[in-house]
Amino acid sequence: MSWPMGLTMLRLLLLPVFLWLMLAGARHEVGGHELRRYRWGALGIFAVMAITDKLDGYLARRLNQTSRIGALLDPLADKLLIACSLILLSFPWIAPQGYAIPIPVVVGVYAKDVGVAIGTIVLLYKLGRVSVTPRLLGKLSTFLQLALILATLLAPDLGRVAWPLLVTFWFAVILAAAGAALDYAYQGTSQARYAREHAVAGK
């Protein structure tokens, strides 16, 4: 158990706590508003999980403690955190009142993830192996999704800037997801073309 692996496991263990705080806040509504302490508790847990996401990657590289299981669990923890958060915050009775994330934003994010998953399976079937490397657009897409979740949780305390900020993030998240999807598609077609050219050259 290395430090990076410990931080990844911590994120996975904190996820149920985050979900409980979100659902508890929705259940204990007072006068149409979720209890502030639940929302801020969820916000604090989410911030810890987001920080450890960056910290474990840094420590893995700095301490040379990368592992195959860590390489699998780290993106899994990220996807679970973002997926659960986006879905929950798209429900008006769970999100801060009046600030639910629009369904098209959630669909745009998931369309990218589903496309990448299908493309990966197809390449594995045809080539026997595939390399999915996160690049700038993919990292930007993940960062904007995390920022959108934070902004949504903070929205009731942001005053007049809440709506302009959220709308900006909604469009930015969709555009970044579309760009990342195209970039992953380019990577996939490049790998398929490379394998086909070498197969022809080997004959």
Question: Which descriptors apply to this entry?
Answer:
2 domains; globular; 203 residues; 78% helix; mainly alpha
Summarize the topology.
Elements: H1 3-27, H2 36-62, H3 68-89, H4 103-127, H5 136-154, H6 162-202
Describe this structure in words.
- The protein is mostly helical.
- Helix 3 (68-89) packs across helix 5 (136-154), helix 4 (103-127) runs parallel beside helix 6 and helix 5 (136-154) packs antiparallel against helix 6.
- It is built from six helices and no strands.
- The model has no long low-confidence stretch (mean pLDDT 82).
- The relative contact order is 0.11.
- It folds into two domains: 1-77; 101-203, no CATH class.
- The protein is globular.
- The longest helix has 41 residues, at 162-202.
- It has helices at 3-27, 36-62, 68-89, 103-127, 136-154, 162-202.
